[in-house]
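Q:
Just now I want nothing more than another pair of eyes on a protein record. Here is the record:
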Amino acid sequence: MRKIFWAGDSTVKTNKFVTFPQTGIGQAFDRYVKTDVIIYNHAENGRSTKSFIDESRLAPIYNEITEGDFLFIQFGHNDEKEKDPARYTDPHGEFIVNLGKFINVARNKKAYPVLITPVERRLFDENGVLKPSAHEEYVKGVFEAGEKFDVPVIDLCSMSRDFLSKIGDEKSKKYYMILEKGEASWCPDGQVDNSHLKYEGAMIYAGMIAKGLSALGGVYADLIAQQDALEDSLKIEFNG
């Protein structure tokens, strides 16, 4: 059996029924992989590269990952929090250093690291135009780390921005945690949440990552089931 280990934040995390319908990308990703691939999702709410490491959350991955496995590394949302020294990292400094620590964990065990840029937030202006990304410098940082450490990068941020721009403000509500009356008991009715995903959002963005892995070819593409069907399903979502 091949294993994918996933390190990330709440946009990736596996959710239980108490936070339904919130769904993480890592939680949905198993729909796209072959039957001999197992996913171990270590993503946790509110974590940055810094806090994930400081809380020793990388250690269990190091202990469990083995040769031929994969480590997907997806951060940015919480590294941006400048007012929180426990989480903030400079996008062109500590952020890259920390990504290197994740990469080293994989490589020390002869596993394959993959960097993934953060999914875009659903933020539109009064004219229905998608606002500039708060992730921009961290996306650049991920690419800098990819080049520095010679690691493939899946640019989910750009793919998700293209998707949001195409479908627009109103249609995009289907994919993010904008709750209707009675939909969840753990937060107020109608609460707007432009970062976290519903099942539909987790599925479409997990599909984009799967598409990115397919484009890399080799061992990365070999993780993905029914690649032709994947392409067709993403086209349906973009045109829906």
